[in-house]
Each structure stands twice: as C-alpha cells, then as structure tokens.
Amino acid sequence: MRQSPPVLSFIITSPLTFVGLFDPQLRRAPVGSGVRSAIAIFSASANLYRFLYKNECLYMFYKWPLTLYYDGACPLCAREIAFLRKRSTEARLCLVDIRSPDFDPTPLGLTVAQLTSCLHARFASGQWVTGLDATLWAWRAANAAVWVAPLAWRPLRPLLEVCYRLFCRLRPSLHWLPHPDGASRCSSGASKCDTR
Q1: How far apart, in whole angstroms, are the C-alpha atoms of residue 121 and residue 162?
Q2: Who's near 75: CB < 8 A, 6+ residues apart?
Q3: What letter would DSSP give residue 121?
Q4: Three-point CA angle 65, 66, 68, nearest 5°
Q5: Contacts of 45 (CB under 8 A, 6+ apart)
Q6: Which helix or strand (DSSP H or E) is residue 114 part of?
Q7: Which of 25, 38, 77, 120 is the one with CA 20 to 30 A from 183?
C-alpha cells in the first residue's frame, strides 16, 4: 500500500519542532552541554505538540479497524468514501452505508437521524469519534493523513468546527450534485456502497 512521503508527513504533522532552539532553558544551558540542549529541545517540542494537536494521546491505545458510518446518498460523501476505499484495507477501515436497506442502527444505540447529523466512526475497542475527528481518523486509517493533517491542529479547530457545522447544515441541499455511482445506485434493489 502506498504510504505518505516520510519527509512531507514529518513537516506537516510536526510543525515548528525546532522551536526549542528559542526556549529560555536552552539559552541558559552552558556552552557544550549537549544533553541539556537536547532535553530543552525535546521539552519545548513536546509542549508545542500538545498545543498544536488536539487529544492525540487519547487515541494511542484505540484498536483498529475503525468503522466509518457514512451517508451513501450524499454525493460528496460518496466521492470521499470511494477515495478512502481505494487506499484502505479491512484491517484498518470498515465502511458502512447508513442508507442501506439492511442497516440497523439499534445495536449502536443511535438513530439514523443522529448518524446523519454529523459523521460518526467507532474503533474496534468501542470508542466513538465524530465530526472532524471522524474524518481525520478515517483518512489516517486510509494512509492519507497528510491531506487532512490541519484537522488536528488545535489553533485551527475553532474555525474548522464552524465550517464543518455549516457544511452539515447545507449537506442535505446538495443532493442535486452528480453522484459517483450514477444511475447504477438506483438500478438494483441494493446500494452499491453498503458494507465493505
């Protein structure tokens, strides 16, 4: 499976790592104190990471695969899912169409209306992620995290959350857009995008 370029991923997912060079602890370190310099850089980098990224450590022990519950009737959603399906495997990402006639949300403890209000995904260990976090982790599961890395940057989250809520309000009115499945979606009794 194609992986994101290591250098590009490092640059995007760890911005300003070397801000530790300007840390006061480092400036006070004696000349030639390599160990203290390294500790200062690491400390400053860790603090910056915690500032820039939202709740990353909470997902360290979550188990794959991630199950993504998507609206297969939404043209934009279907296009995104088609991209993710090509790049992912069942061991990392399972895709479930909540518009499938066979889909039953009862075991999940949710309704279809709740699942369509925003994107929902669940790790194999039972933890739920919704909205932007569901998008972020779905793309990570498909080894395409480099394209959605800004979703994890805490300074941008307030603005991105507003944009996402606006999209969720407008999404039902976008049904007129061309669907990637075209007429084939309605030509048979079952959806073409049920469950991988």
Answers
A1: 20
A2: 174, 175, 177, 178, 179, 180
A3: E
A4: 140
A5: 14, 17, 18, 19, 20
A6: helix 112-117
A7: 120
